[in-house]
Amino acid sequence: MIDVSVIGCGNMGGALLTGLSRAGGYRITAYDVDPDALEAVSEHCDRTTTDLGDVRDSEVVVLAVKPDIVPLVLEDLDLRPGQTLVTIAAGVSRAQVGAETDATVVRIMPNLAAETRAMAAAVSWDDPDEHVGQMLSDLGAYVEVDEDLMHVATALNGSGPAFVFYLIQAMQERAVEEGLDPDDARTLAAQTFNGAAETVLRSDRDLDSLIDAVCSPGGTTIEGMEVLFDSDADTAVGDALTAARKRSEELAGADAE
What we know:
With 257 residues, this protein is α/β, with parallel strands linked by helices. It folds into two domains: 2-146, Rossmann fold, CATH 3.40.50.720; 160-244, Orthogonal Bundle (ProC C-terminal domain-like fold), CATH 1.10.3730. The chain is 51% helix and 16% strand. The chain is built from eleven helices and eight strands. It has an eight-stranded mixed β-sheet with strand order 3-2-1-4-5-6-7-8. Strand 4 (60-63), helix 3 and strand 5 (84-87) form a beta-alpha-beta unit. Helix 6 (150-158) crosses helix 11 (233-256) and helix 7 packs across helix 8 (182-202).
């Protein structure tokens, strides 16, 4: 049983709490200054609190607050060597957090799929942390990256779900225009992305080969793919990722000042 506290019960903090609760094997404390936020996650926690002192004995403390709130929390968060402080704040380095705590600092970039235990996460640490590794595995899949690549990870797997939701919505809306029921179109579009992603993860073939496998000569798929090949859709998606990466760097610069 791993004793975990999550500071901040907004969208991402709530997703982590929900996923850990569903995984089992965790004693979970949720902290927030907003009683309504605590009420929203209470069913997934062993304890909720508005007293920061209640999280100080946890083996792992997850700092799931916005970057500008991090310094305010660290002022009052007194952790010891041997504890682990996990930060998910975009643009806030481990060095910045480590200067304000005696705990071992691990930085992760998770995403909202933590709630359904299908999360993609990036982690940066000096040495692998057994408890954090277990948590990330229980919530989905993770990769280790150098901290200077966290800006890219923030854009890719952190912001990426919104980009995917946008594409699912575009497919759903056009299918509805073509006559499908909205709920049926939503299910088919979402499950298509889900199945395609699983295929990528479980296949040894590269993406070009997988595209070719769906495209029969003269068939429907290649007709649609020709529209994409002739468009700048790949550039637009790439530009969205670059814009998110640049914003992460801007946030880091602002926090360092």
